[in-house]
Amino acid sequence: MPMYDENMIIRDARVLREQFIPGRVLHREGQLDAIRNCLKPMLKGMEPRNMFTFGDPGTGKTCISRFVVEELSAHTVSVQGSYINCWECSSRFKILYSILQDMGLSLSVHRKGTPTDELLGNLKKRLEQRCCVIILDEVDKLEDDRVLYDLATLQGACLILISNSETALHGADPRVRSRLASAECLEFPVYSGGEILDILKDRAEWGLLPGAIKNAQLERIASASNGDSRVAIETLRIVAEEAENQDLRMVHDSSIERALPRAMESSTERNIDMLAPHYRLIIEILESRGKVDAGKLLKEFRKLSTQRGLPDVVDRSFRNYVDRLMQLGLVRAEGGGRWRSYSPEVPGAHSGK
Ligand SMILES: Nc1ncnc2c1ncn2[C@@H]1O[C@H](COP(=O)(O)OP(=O)(O)OP(=O)(O)O)[C@@H](O)[C@H]1O
Ligand SMILES: [Mg+2]
Questions:
Q1: Which residue's alpha carbon is nearest to atom 10 within ligand 1?
Q2: What is the value of pTM for the model shown?
Q3: What average pLDDT values come out for the chain (353 residues) when binned by 10 residues?
Q4: For residues 176 and 149, is the Cβ–Cβ distance under 8 A?
Q5: Fewest CB within a 10 Å sphere: which of 90, 127, 264, 288?
Q6: Domains plus CATH for the chain?
Q7: Which pairs count as long-range contacts for 37-42, CB under 8 Å and 24+ apart, including other chains?
């Protein structure tokens, strides 16, 4: 008798993880082609084009960028890839160090004692032998945008910058902006319910055993995910693990209804963490006060942002911040004109429950 029973639901748990890069990606042909076209000149020893990709959470920016870079580095030995999440790795030193590591350079340097410019020199030399596509994810989380200038001026390096916000680089140093002015801008629009369903079906097919989940259940998850592929896949992971732990052969509807708000909540928390401080401050005020009218919200926002030493913002930017939070489903508005008020959005409120 085997010591452990065989899995009844999950065929391959890796496929359900967020970081997993699938063997094929769906409904992003335009973005795939655009990224491939920017990288293609590298194959002929010519200069590639840098890219700036932006879009709401769960629109596939990280997945599609990594997919194309893996595809290219599998195709040729003359190009390799490096992925950096600037949320986790935000200083100039750490970024350069991490790229060098990804390029296979075992650094004899003592981590702390090496001057950053020496790392840059090493990278320059290394790039003469082999080109590198560098993905800088969550690029608005960089501590120091000088590193963008460093990397954008290096021969043999191609940048794919990723952000939730189209205006992420507007505040960057003018020299950085001018270096990146010719970058290809690529938008990742929110997925439709049907597109999410296709992505989900693919994951279920590879990740779960046949018959583990019904089509109608995948449809329910897709329509409740509001176009966010991360929420959809996370829900699938939660229900599959729950069923597996309970030795079931099929996912239950009630498990899906429990998992959806959990997946949405963890996605909301992540989305708030990823926001710039001004946005987070608005959420914080609304969470502590509940419903607040527009004038009071602005006054409180001004007071706290000064106390915390955040840069001043004009009224129009403040309104843009609030609009963006509404777009992201984090803030809800009621009434119009002078009577407009705002409150924090409850995760899952629009999931059709
Ligand atoms: N077109 C697609 N085909 C297959 N899987 C996809 C596709 N788009 C997204 N996914 C999957 O959905 C999940 C979320 O996608 P991803 O992490 O790329 O979103 P994102 O746009 O980077 O979000 P964020 O801005 O929050 O970082 C990942 O597990 C990814 O593999
Ligand atoms: Mg991402």
A1: 60
A2: 0.85
A3: 73 94 96 98 94 96 98 94 91 92 75 78 93 95 90 96 90 91 96 98 97 98 96 97 95 98 90 83 93 94 90 82 86 88 72 37
A4: yes
A5: 288
A6: 29-188 (3.40.50.300), 192-271 (1.10.8.60), 275-344 (1.10.10.10)
A7: 38/158, 38/184, 39/68, 39/69, 39/72, 39/79, 39/133, 39/158, 42/72, 42/78, 42/79, 42/131, 42/133, 42/158
